[in-house]
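User: Some background: our group keeps a shared notebook of sequences we're curious about, and every so often someone picks one and asks for a predicted structure to add to the entry. Today it's my turn. The entry only has the sequence so far, pasted here. Could you supply the structure so I can complete it?
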Amino acid sequence: MKRSLLAVVITGLALTSLSSARAAIETYNIDPVHTWVGFSVAHFFTKVPGYFSKVKGTIVVDRDHLENSTVETVIEVASITTNTKMRDDDLRSTNFFAAAQFPSMTFKSEAWKSTGDKTYDVTGRLTMKNISKEVVLKVTSLGFGPGMKGAAISGWEAALTLDRRDFGITADQGAVGNNVDVVINVEADLVKPAPVAP
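Assistant: Of course. Here's the predicted structure to add to the notebook entry:
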């Protein structure tokens, strides 16, 4: 009898532990309306800003251990804008991003490393113009909580500096800088789990 009771208790604890572990894992979809993928690059002595207006992706979060989280994003290259049509057309052309041939760039994380209170080095593969390179995003977790109409959201900020030549973008040397500063602000919506069938 004691062994049966002990087995029940152990099984219950195991199921509770498993349930808690599953509950800690949350999936968020990036909200393209409230997400900003911006950049700036030198033009002679000044810096010109721009951004990509179309981005989507998924963040799978372990709230108890954010180091176990993952992120995947897709950015539509043709959505690049610097608020100047002639320059934007040039950036979409084969001189720079070749958007018709390479319509999207992607990032997929491989490891998260805690670097401080709510800050992480997120290492992953950035693919642009069919060239894949390892990069490190400096990521800050801005928080979790209710957003519009009480829906659960999460907020993130990330930054990195790229050398555009690493991705085969070499036009206008001397006029356009090679180092590109990237700043990303993300709002992501919690994906509600499907109801469990009775």
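Suggested note for the entry: The domain at 25-190 is CATH 2.40.128.110 (Lipocalin). The helical segments are 2-24, 85-92.
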